[in-house]
Amino acid sequence: MTKGWQRSYRHTRTGQRSASLRELYQWCSGEERELSGEFFARYPAGRGTGDLTPFAGILQEPGPLHDVAPDARCADLRQCLTDALDESLTSAGGVDLAVSGGIDLAVSGGIDCWLLAALLRSRGYGVRGWYLESGVPGYCERQQVQSMAAALDIPCRYVRVTAADFVESLEEFLTALETPIYNLHPVSKWLLAQRLRKEGVATLVTGDGADQVMRREWDCDLLPLTLTCFRHAGIRLVLPFTDHRVIAFCREPFPDKRPVRELARQLGVPEAAKHATLFPPAPLPGMQSLPGIEAGDDRADCLSYTTGLLVRVLEGHRQCVGSRA
């Protein structure tokens, strides 16, 4: 499985490298701490950040996901996912999870996770779904999740949170991830990871990465944030769609995820329309625009707000949890 999602940083003037943005921020002069216009132009437009950080004096490397050369000999998608799941789930401390209580699976209203659920069931594993239920109109997918769970006869537990939990968790989220965000959706990963840790979940299967891999899109921003949230919570993520075999299977981009949809159909997963995952605009306390960021656009406002919080964290005296090994 690829490991390039884990971010590190480089100070542009000294060349010093670190896994912690805060450490390099302390090295920056006032000019180097100025906000990067290119970052703020690209990031809220959803084009990824590449090697950019919000600050002029710090670059990010190596990137969220390494490309893998396509392999025409690769087996079909079902075999790739099966091999990835079997290898990951039987290597967790040498324990066969089919015998030790079944598989915990993060679910949503989309087909990626339910395809994995059906595939796991076909392999003889017991499966239990977990869904973060926010109740936020236009964002919460509980109805779709219930329909999928009923159609596949898979039990699902609902972790209930509120819109206020998203906003109130922002400072903890930014302290751990050291990355501003243009929409509150990534905070859902943080909230789910924190709650599952309390529930004693140690290993979690997820369909994250399917969109990026099928589109052969390596400059993604959500995937490294997701993985860092669960890593901080001490939960081992199993991501079959980011396995090297699946990446190699995608010899060309599949923007409509046709192979995933066809395999889901074969496994009896109901068709589901693509659902927007952006969190609706939320009031942010004490919102102030940062220099060079035009206020009034929801993404720019959220990015401005979370950047301001991040600066406060970076300039504070406490140790950032994201920099702890």
Mean pLDDT: 86
The shape is: globular
Oligomer: single chain
Residue share in helix: 25-40%
Total number of helices: 13
Keyphrases for this structure?
38% helix; three-stranded antiparallel β-sheet; alpha/beta; globular; Rossmann fold
Précis, in short:
This protein has 325 residues and is of the alpha/beta class. Helices cover 38% and strands 10% of the residues.
Chart the SSEs and their pairings.
Blueprint: E1 8-11, E2 17-18, H1 21-25, H2 37-42, E3 58-61, H3 77-89, E4 103-106, H4 111-122, E5 127-133, H5 142-152, E6 156-160, H6 163-168, H7 170-177, H8 186-198, E7 203-205, H9 210-214, H10 222-233, E8 236-238, H11 244-249, H12 258-266, H13 298-314
Parallel strand pairs: 4-5, 5-6, 7-8
Antiparallel strand pairs: 1-2, 1-3
Helix pairs in contact: 4-12, 7-13, 8-10
Protein model, in words:
The structure is a single chain. This protein has 325 residues and is α/β, with parallel strands linked by helices. The protein has 2 domains: 8-66 and 294-323, no CATH class; 77-266, HUPs (Rossmann fold, 3-Layer(aba) Sandwich), CATH 3.40.50.620. It has 13 helices and 8 strands. The strands form 3 sheets. It has a 3-stranded antiparallel sheet. Helix 5 links the parallel strand 5 (127-133) and strand 6. It is globular and about 60 Å long. The chain starts with 7 loop residues before the first strand and ends in an 11-residue tail after the last helix. Mean pLDDT is 86; it is low at 318-325.
